[in-house]
Amino acid sequence: MSEKIEVLITEEQLDKRICEIAEEITRDFGSKDITLVCVLKGGVMFMVDIAKKLKQKVEFEFIDVSSYGNNTVSSGTVTINNGLETSIEGKNVILLEDIVDTGRTLSHLIKYLKEKNPASLKLCTLLDKPSRRVVDINADYIGFTIPDAFIVGYGLDYAQKYRNLPYIGILHLENQ
Ligand code: IMP
Predict the structure, then answer these.
(1) Could you give the CA distance from residue 126 to residue 147 in angstroms, rounded to a whole number?
(2) 90 pairs with which residues across the strands?
(3) Is residue 75 very low, low, confident or very high in pLDDT (cuts 50, 70, 90)?
(4) What is the pLDDT at residue 163?
(5) pLDDT tens digits along 91-111
(6) Which residue among the candidates 101, 140, 148, 157 is catalytic per the annotation?
(7) 100 contacts: CB under 8 Å, gap ≥ 6
(8) How far is the CA of 100 from the centre of ligand 1 (A)?
(9) Atom nearest to 135 CA in ligand 1
(10) Is 101 a catalytic residue?
(11) CATH number, domain containing residue 37
């Protein structure tokens, strides 16, 4: 099986859209401090790039979640391998996802985060695949709405590969 990658979103398009989202967040939050909660590992690039463009005081938190293993289809079971390190009680939290696919991960994490009593909770995803949704859930900030395809690059992986691509691509698995 050979792996081919078709460019879907270029580095320039990513940069432009991330600037726009950061402006929206900056406008919405005003002078309030923000706690960014990054979903590992896919959300790392997005968190770093968006954080640099926010004007508020920003704290970083990480949650390690797994649902895919080495497949291109979700296992359907969301496991939190490592949760938050510090309290988010009374804080303005933005949960940063790389991609919302079925919506299972996001809905699981919303429940987990709400139980920790943040002052507010907003959801921000770089990519949205609404055609695959099984849980009725939508993000407050969306970078790009994309078709039903398996995506790699800019943090997203296939069997831990391709996370370091500076663009977003569609992975094609082909018989040689
Ligand atoms: P969901 O729970 O089905 O919405 O899936 C969310 C998680 O699955 C994301 O945070 C990603 O880690 C992973 N995922 C979903 N779609 C893709 C994809 O196209 N490429 C790589 N990872 C994906």
Answers:
(1) 14
(2) none
(3) low
(4) 97
(5) 999 999 999 999 999 999 999
(6) 101
(7) 106, 125, 127, 128, 129, 133, 137, 139
(8) 6
(9) 4
(10) yes
(11) 3.40.50.2020
